[in-house]
Structures are given as structure tokens and as C-alpha cells.
Amino acid sequence: MSRLSGKVACVAGAASGIGKATALLFAAEGARVVATDINAAGAELVAKDCGGWALAHDVGEEGDWTRVVAEIERREGRLQVLAITAGIEHHTPLLATSIEDFRRVQRVNVEGTFLGIKAAAPAMRRAGGGAIVTISSVAGLNGAANLSAYCASKGAVRLLTKAAAVEFAQSGWPVRVNSVHPGFIDTPMARTMFRNLDPDQAKQLEAHIARLHPMNRWGRAEEVARTILYLASDDSSFVTGAEHIVDGGYSAR
User: Fold this and answer.
1) 8: which strand partners?
2) Beta-bridge partners for 131
3) What are the strands of the beta sheet with 8-12, ordered from one edge?
């Protein structure tokens, strides 16, 4: 298939999880993929599998975003798709969450998204149009115990996406911005919840999380990537400012 044929796409946070699945799918659909991640070695491996190239990238640093977009334009001549999949979680009760940990989550999840949109949109305008896909979460739609910092960040990503979409559309910029809201997806980041559990506890937690979804299972990174592909492609040419939920029915209860 070739839903992104001829397009240059950057996947920020491409070294693992949803980002890796997205980069691989974009490449399979004809895109020229630039994989970026703070884990530079991981990004290089994904880029090799995609037939593209990689850059080290801290999404919370404005200078890194300026450098990444400039390098993509220099080497490829254009940037038409950006998927901002980099993100972190923090599992701690609210009263035990330090301001440092709260700010660390906002820096990556919110500021990283803000800086990515700000850096990429002018380049996409120069390219004649483009699509930005942000990653929020069902935790950006509903509260969850012990996830106050994460919920706050993903709620901010949801409305930042809508604000950017409206602003660009009303300004006549041909840049669409949409968010994806995954449920519990089986990724290395999600698996950090299990790091201090014994095997029986881990098995019980895994089953409990599966039961939270009416489909009674965790999601797969590839399933989220397919929604990101839709929003990145011309199939969604009249879609902007929308939130797309990929959660096995979790938020439908």
C-alpha cells in the first residue's frame, strides 16, 4: 500500500512502543521516515528497518526541535507529517508526587508537544501542507488514581491539539492537527508498572488491566499506529482538531 507515498514523515519518540510501530507502518506505506528519540541508538535501529535515517532528539528542548526540523528540510527538502509519540508516565499518589516529578512529566508530554507543533507547522506550510498527530491518552479524558501528573499532561495535550488545529485552519494554514487517545497498550513504557512486582502480582495486574477494557485485553502498538496513519494520510483530509480513541471500549463505559 502507499497511503504516504512521496511524503517525508518524522516520528518523534520512534525508538520503541507506539513510536516504533508508527515509524515501521509509515515506511511500509511509502513514507520517507526520519526517526528521532532521546535514545539515539534505538532510533538508529528503527531507522535502519524503515530505510530512513535518525536523529538524537530531546523533545523537551526547543533547540533540538529547531535542529531536527532544519535538518529534515535540508536533507529531504520538506516535512509533511509529524507524529509526536514521545512520552513518559509517573505512577505515584498525588500527595506523594513532587513538584520536580510533576514538572518532568509536563516537560516531555506537554512542552514536547507544544514545541513540536510550533517547529513543524511553518515547515509544513512551506511544503504546501501537512499533518501533525499528537498522542494523548484515555487518561487525558478521564481521571485515574496515582496518575495525576500524567492525566494533567495528557489533558493538556488534548486541548493544545484542538487549539492549534483551530488556529491553523482559521489562519488558512494547510496544517491539520489531531490527537490519538490510547487505552492500556502493551509497550515498554506501560510495562514499567510491573518492575517491582513478583510474578504472581504481575499476572494479577495484567489480568486486571485487561478486564478494564470491554474487549478484555490490552491493545497493541500496531493498532494505535494504524489510527495515526489514517490521521497522517490524505484519507483524513477533512479531519482536524479531532480526538481519536483507541482503547478497546475503556472510555465507553
Assistant:
1) 32
2) 81, 176
3) 53-56, 32-37, 8-12, 81-84, 130-135, 175-182, 243-246
* Catalytic residue IDs: 150
Q: What is the pLDDT of residues 87-109, one digit of tens each?
A: 999 989 999 999 999 999 999 99
Neighbour count for residue 36 (Cβ, 10 Å): 34
Place of cell 518532568: 104
Q: What share of the chain is helix, strand, coil (3-state, %, to 5)?
A: 50, 15, 30
Q: CA distances (Å), 47 to each of 63, 111, 222, 235, in order?
A: 22, 25, 17, 25
pTM higher than 0.70: yes
pLDDT digits (tens, 9 = 90+) for 46-97: 999 999 999 999 999 999 999 999 999 999 999 999 999 999 999 899 999 9
Selection from 187, 225, 238 nearest residue 27 by Cα? 225
Distances (CA, A) of 26 to 83, 122, 131: 10, 22, 13
